[in-house]
Write a structure and sequence with these properties.
globular, single chain, 27 strands, 4-stranded antiparallel sheet
Length: 284
């Protein structure tokens, strides 16, 4: 169902920056990656904006709060994991060439876990920069996004292998094939219902998987919407972006779906986050 909502768009300095990932930082501000500009942006509670240049070829994608009070982000263009403190101090951990890191999340062990898109692996980086890489039992699987599950494990999507995976803290990997062929999962998040929710950009569906591997799929009203990112709603269900449909959507725990049209045509919503005041923010 398409419904109305109060939607406000906030322009960022510098057209063409390519806002991609977004999260709420430990300082309560919104932090974004600027994929095209190779930078990071911060928007304070009063709307004040500050940006930092990382590197023109860094192509930062996903950003997440770390266990050390800083923000960590993937640099898919130059194979690094970036770190920025809340006062703007930048540093990075170099990864093996050809890694192509995408999704990143703080794991249950106090380290950062990331998806190595181009290397068929899941990686782990401690806040001190110590690295471990875990090969996946696929070739060309295109590991995309990661999320910490309720079971002391990290879950991830394999966009080209059409599967959702789980990796334990001991490195043991389990893959779960999706029922729909060509579903191409991307975003994944831990829901408040104890399951993992994910989007199927190729099938126009949302998915839910329990820690024991039971999968349910929910077709979207617009199957051509190309859902991209998903985040848990603390009040229940999840919010997600429709990259091709130019909408923000919400799925309830029973599978009921509501969608909200964005004011600007072809704004291509990517990442999204829910602020402490329950406001939903998306990177356009």
């Amino acid at each position: 169902m398409t419904t109305s909502a109060k939607i406000r768009e906030v322009p960022l300095a510098g057209a063409g920056g390519g806002p991609y990932g977004i999260t709420v930082g430990p300082d309560g501000a919104l932090w974004l990656t600027l994929a095209h500009a190779g930078g990071i942006a911060r928007m304070g509670a009063g709307g004040e904006l500050r940006t930092w240049s990382v590197s023109p070829d860094s192509r930062p994608l996903i950003i997440t709060p770390g266990p050390d009070g800083a923000l960590w982000f993937t640099r898919s263009g130059d194979d690094r994991i970036g770190r920025i403190t809340t006062d703007g101090e930048l540093s990075a951990v170099a990864l093996p060439a050809g890694t192509g890191p995408c999704g990143i999340a703080a794991g249950p062990d106090g380290a950062l876990w990331y998806a190595a898109m181009n290397a068929d692996a899941i990686g782990r980086v401690t806040v001190d920069g110590e690295q471990t890489r875990f090969p996946l039992p696929v070739s060309g699987g295109f590991a995309s996004m990661v999320a910490t599950g309720p079971d002391e494990a990290v879950w991830f999507t394999l966009n080209q292998a059409n599967a959702v995976g789980r990796i334990g803290m001991d490195g043991a990997v389990t893959l779960h094939a999706l029922p729909t062929e060509g579903a191409a999962p991307v975003g994944i998040t831990a829901g408040v219902d104890g399951a993992l929710w994910f989007v199927e950009i190729g099938a126009g569906q949302l998915g839910r998987i329990t820690p024991d591997g039971r999968i349910t799929e929910y077709p979207l009203p617009d199957r051509s919407a190309r859902p991209h990112a998903i985040v848990a709603d603390p009040a229940g269900g999840c919010w997600y972006t429709e990259w091709g449909g130019n909408r923000i959507g919400h799925v309830a725990q029973d599978g009921t779906i509501d969608t909200y049209d964005l004011p600007t045509p072809a704004s291509e919503p990517h990442g999204l986050t829910v602020a402490p005041d329950a406001t939903v923010w998306a990177a356009l």
